[in-house]
C-alpha cells in the first residue's frame, strides 16, 4: 500500500474527497488504524487526558510527545503521522518552536507537527514551515487555551468571534500551514472557512462542511468513561467488553479453571 503524503492530503481537497484522521498513542492502535486505511494519524496531546489521566492537556511534555510519537510511527506503514506541539513548546519564542518541532521530526519520526492558535501562532508556524517541517494549524476551541476560554466552549457563535476565526484561518494559511483543524465551531462558519482558504480543513465538532474529520480514538472505541461531547460518535463500547473479559479472567483464576491443561508448558 502506497505511503500517504502531504501531496495526497492536498489532492483530496482539490478532488472534493474527504480526508480521514484519528488519534493514536501506541503501536498497537496505530497498527490497527493504519491497516484500516486511515489517511492520517494524530499523536495528540489529548494523551494527557485519555492516556495519562490529567484534567487537561497542559501537563503534557515534549518527552511525552516524543515517546508516544515514536510508538505510533513504529506501528504504521501507510498513514501520515502528525504530532502535537505541547503547551509551552512553541509559545515562548520561534527558536523554541523550531527546536521542538525538529525533535518531533528527527527523534520521533513525525512527518508534520500541529500548532494551536491563529494570528498569535503565525510567527511560530512560519518559522517551522520555513525549515521545511510541515505544520498543521489548529483554531477554534484550542485545548491549551482552556483557562483563557473559561472551559471547553463552542467558539464563533458571536459575530466578533466569527470574524476572528476567519482571520485566524487566513493567517495560518499565509504563514505556511499545510492544513488546519477547526474545533468546536458552528458548522456554517467551518464551511465558510473551508471555502475561503486553499489548504485542507479537518473538523472536530465543526460539521460536515470541512475537508476531513478527526476524532479521539478513545471516544470512537467507547474508552472515555461517561464524558462524551455532542460531536463524538461512539462506534463500539469497549469498556463493557474489556470489563466482561477481565471479570471472567478473575473468576477463572480464583476458581482454579485458569490455567487449564491446554495452557501448561510441557
Largest sheet: 8 strands, parallel, barrel
Q: Residue ranges: pLDDT <50 for 5 or more in a row?
A: none
What is the CATH architecture term?
Answer: Alpha-Beta Barrel
Q: State the fourth-level CATH superfamily.
A: Phosphoenolpyruvate-binding domains
Mean pLDDT reading: 96
Number of strands: 8
Major sheet strand order? 1-2-3-4-5-6-7-8
Q: Which term fits the overall shape?
A: globular
Radius of gyration: 20 Å
Helical stretch count? 11
Q: Write the H/E string, N to C.
A: HEHEHHEHEHEHHEHEEHH
Description:
The chain is α/β, with parallel strands linked by helices and 266 residues long. It has one domain (6-235): TIM Barrel, CATH 3.20.20. It has 11 helices and 8 strands. An 8-stranded parallel barrel has the order 1-2-3-4-5-6-7-8, surrounded by 7 helices. The chain is globular. The termini are far apart. The model has no long low-confidence stretch (mean pLDDT 96).
Short account of what is shown:
This protein has 266 residues and is an alpha/beta fold. It has 11 helices and 8 strands. It has one domain (6-235): TIM Barrel, CATH 3.20.20.60.
Amino acid at each position: 500500500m502506497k505511503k500517504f503524503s502531504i501531496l495526497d492530503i492536498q489532492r483530496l481537497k482539490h478532488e472534493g474527497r474527504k480526508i480521514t484522521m484519528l488519534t493514536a498513542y501506541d503501536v498497537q492502535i496505530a497498527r490497527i488504524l493504519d491497516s484500516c486505511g486511515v489517511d492520517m494519524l494524530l499523536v495528540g496531546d489529548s494523551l494527557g487526558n485519555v492516556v495519562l489521566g490529567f484534567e487537561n492537556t497542559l501537563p503534557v511534555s515534549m518527552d511525552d510527545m516524543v515517546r508516544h510519537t515514536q510508538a505510533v510511527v513504529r506501528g504504521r506503514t501507510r498513514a501520515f503521522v502528525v504530532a502535537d506541539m505541547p503547551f509551552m513548546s512553541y509559545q515562548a519564542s520561534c527558536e523554541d518552536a523550531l527546536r521542538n518541532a525538529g525533535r518531533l521530526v528527527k527523534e520521533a519520526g513525525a512527518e508534520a507537527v500541529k500548532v494551536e492558535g491563529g494570528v498569535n501562532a503565525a510567527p511560530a508556524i512560519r518559522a517551522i514551515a520555513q525549515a521545511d517541517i510541515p505544520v498543521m494549524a489548529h483554531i477554534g476551541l484550542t485545548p491549551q487555551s482552556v483557562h483563557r476560554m473559561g472551559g471547553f466552549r463552542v467558539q464563533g457563535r458571536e459575530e466578533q468571534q466569527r470574524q476572528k476565526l476567519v482571520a485566524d484561518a487566513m493567517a495560518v494559511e499565509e504563514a505556511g500551514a499545510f492544513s488546519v483543524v477547526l474545533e468546536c465551531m458552528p458548522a456554517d462558519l467551518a464551511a465558510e472557512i473551508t471555502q475561503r482558504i486553499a489548504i485542507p480543513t479537518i473538523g472536530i465538532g465543526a460539521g460536515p462542511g470541512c475537508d476531513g474529520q478527526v476524532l479521539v480514538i478513545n471516544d470512537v472505541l467507547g474508552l472515555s468513561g461517561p464524558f462524551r461531547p455532542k460531536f463524538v460518535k461512539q462506534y463500539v463500547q469497549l469498556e463493557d467488553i474489556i470489563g466482561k473479559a477481565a471479570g471472567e479472567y478473575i473468576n477463572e483464576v480464583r476458581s482454579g479453571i485458569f490455567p487449564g491443561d491446554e495452557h501448561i508448558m510441557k
